[in-house]
Amino acid sequence: MKRIALPIALLLALALALPVAAAPAPTSVFLLISGSLGDKGFNDSAKAGLDMIKAKYGSKVTTKYTELGSDTAKYAPSLEDAGAEGYSIVFCSNNFRSAVQEIAARYPKTLYVMYDGWVEGDIKNVYSIQYKNSEAGYLAGVLAGTMTKGSGDPRLNADNVIGFIGGRDITGINDFFVGYIAGAQKVNPAVKIVYNYVNSFTDTAKAKDQALIQFGSYKADIVYHAAGRAGLGLFDAAVETGKYAIGVDTDQASMFSTEPAKAGLVLSSTLKRVDLTLSGIFDRFMAGESLGGKKVYLGVAEGVIGFAPFNAAVPSATQKAMEKIIAEVKAGSAKVPSAFDMSADDINKMRDAVNPNK
């Protein structure tokens, strides 16, 4: 067969006309933070999850985060921008609930992952996560209720009183509190619990003042907080009074590596592993799992609620007893109430039952 030689110009034209296989674009992830970083708490845990994703997937993923502070007017526009820019996944907390419900459906190619609360209705491209905050509170209550009974520790007084400081009087925070009450009563039925709400998640000075009153006027010797950045004031009050504190969400004692006196007063912190949650979700997304439209409830059994390392002030016998309690919660044999299943009257009855003023 005679071969036909094609002109070089024609060969070049044909080559240019052929489709070229494009390199796959990296998956893009955007973390929107309500408030700011730096409290070794909830937001820092979310940022740690983003860092875990980047460390594992490298060039296969692009990551971005932004701190939006407390200006809620920025939330919806930020979600809108993320969708318009074509991000594969947007992570945000329950503080964005209204904005997610308004914006997400407009950008069906973006998966919006909202943690620490559920969206209303069925939005096909939203995956929402509710944590069992009551289980975290329950563990803290067992620890505080056990310790306050006394173990020869000079920081613990004879008054059977512990404390709680919440960010706001809302269901998500009261979920911690009702669990705290139940856990303390399990091991110490006569315990009293003094409590305050900061009405802010950033006002450290007010939280400190409330903690000082709890430690002083009410003689609480251990106080647990669920108050975000505001709760850092608790640790300042603990140092001033020489009393104990329990942190929340991440290992908050690790913040005070250069302040051993303060770190030594943090008995432990309950953990809410937002980092593991977000990195695990991303793994499933990369594996091709369809996540949109789902709502999940995560706690001790799923490995995302637990304790940070115990302070040396916690006796070994108490630490072993706590391991047993954690196993009971994991197995579902512990009775842990949730504010999400309770009426306002039910919550008030629980609070009144342990209120030292009643």
Would you give an account of this structure?
The protein has 12 helices and 12 strands. It has 358 residues and is of the alpha/beta class. The protein has 2 domains: 27-131 and 277-284, 3-Layer(aba) Sandwich (Rossmann fold); 133-265 and 311-354, Response regulator (Rossmann fold). The protein is elongated and about 65 Å long. The termini are far apart.
User: What's the level 1 CATH class of the largest domain?
Assistant: Alpha Beta
* DSSP, total strands: 12
How would you classify the quaternary structure?
A: single chain
Give me the secondary-structure category. Answer: alpha/beta
Shape: elongated
Note the main sheet.
6 strands, parallel
- The CATH fourth-level homologous superfamily of the largest domain: Response regulator
Uncertain spans = 1-24
Kindly estimate the percentage of residues that lie in beta strands according to DSSP: 15-25%
Number of domains: 2
Annotated CATH architecture of the largest domain? 3-Layer(aba) Sandwich
Give the strand order of the largest sheet, numbering strands 1, 2, ... along the chain. Answer: 2-1-3-4-5-11
In helices, the fraction of residues equals 25-40%
